[in-house]
Amino acid sequence: MIYSPNIMMKTEMLAMILAGGQGTRLGALTKHIAKPAVPFGGRYRIIDFTLSNCTNSGIKEVGVVTQYQPLALNSHLGNGSSWGFDGIDSGLTILQPFSSSDGEKWFQGTAHAIYQNIAYIDQVNPEYILILSGDHIYKMNYEEMLEFHKEKNASLTVAVIEVPIDEASRFGIMNTDENSRIIEFEEKPEEPKNNLASMGIYIFNWQRLRAVLINSYSKDGQMIDFGKHVIPSYLESGENVYAFRFDGYWKDVGTIDSLWEANMEFINIENDLDMRNHNWRIYSKNTISPPHFFTETAVIKNSLIVDGCYIAGEIKDSILSTDVRVKEGSKIEKSVIMPGATIGKNVFIKNAIIGENAVVGDNATVYSEGEIYVVGNSEVIGVVSNEY
């Protein structure tokens, strides 16, 4: 999209999706791709959920901030047409690190990434800015959060969700008064006072946030991260900061266990994401593949099978993504097979994630009791046969 500095059309709310995370806890699955580009649920990638939430919430302008291994993510995003961002009054812009006059090239934190893209944001000229993460699985109407923000006359609104109290120390915890105004923020407290965890979703009044960031980077440059620096600064200065409670399904899939668990929950036809609700679709850029094919030896039980699959083995409680091949005699249980993977003959796979384009050779066993077994993207294990 081409912007003219002389045209300043007012946009009510711009969404900025922070999608540059390396995702080191996902190990071999993010060795060559950013975490938001990791496949999920057979035909999606993780970032599809945030993008689709924007589409369904009526947001017209989206900036996607990338950094680590962006090639696969950029290819997936394209011009945003898969989510309806290619219209006359809408747009998706990919924002990558660049060398500035002060020599900085990489985004040092979430707030620093927004500061580095002030020129783009000013061109869109929003009244409000919505900060989102590109690596969570959930459905959320951001328009409802914006209405709450306006009603409270807030300077900053933070989306929060109740988590089990014994897990609260893993999150940023918001302590509020009876009117949902945040009076204290605790970053991963050892003894949390409540279980209202930040979801990493924020709505700011743009001009105020802009002034805070510019002021900081003209002095000490301390406003690097929203959770660690900006939110505490807002509270200290007496800004109107409110908590917007979300009570739907939300999953941070930043670890192997949580990614596997979310996929297993996704198999349930009555899962909390309600994927068959046509009023709130999850959109994606999908590969054009032939219909899946089951041979006479195939056995499928309680599983999701996507286009392009060839199955001659037994599949139970699993997800097979686009263009997966499973040869005769193989058994797959409670596993996620990502796009393009090939499973040889007489293979046993259980409680595992098989990465994109990976190859598991004949007679291999992919199972380790008590943990999720991971085969990385394009990794080859076992003896590979050329037989179909």
Structural summary, described in words:
The chain has 388 residues and is an alpha/beta fold. The protein folds into 2 domains: 11-267, Spore Coat Polysaccharide Biosynthesis Protein SpsA, Chain A; 293-381, Hexapeptide repeat proteins (UDP N-Acetylglucosamine Acyltransferase, domain 1, 3 Solenoid). It has helices spanning 47-56, 71-77, 110-116, 118-124, 142-151, 206-217, 226-236, 256-267, and strands at residues 11-18, 39-40, 44-45, 61-65, 91-95, 126-133, 136-138, 156-162, 172-176, 182-187, 196-205, 241-245, 250-252, 293-294, 299-301, 304-305, 310-311, 314-316, 319-320, 325-326, 331-333, 336-337, 342-343, 348-350, 352-354, 359-360, 365-366, 373-375, 380-381. The longest helix is centred in the middle third of the chain and has 12 residues, at 206-217. This is Glucose-1-phosphate adenylyltransferase. Residues 297-366 form the Glucose-1-phosphate adenylyltransferase/Bifunctional protein GlmU-like C-terminal hexapeptide domain. Pathway: Glycan biosynthesis; glycogen biosynthesis. Homotetramer.
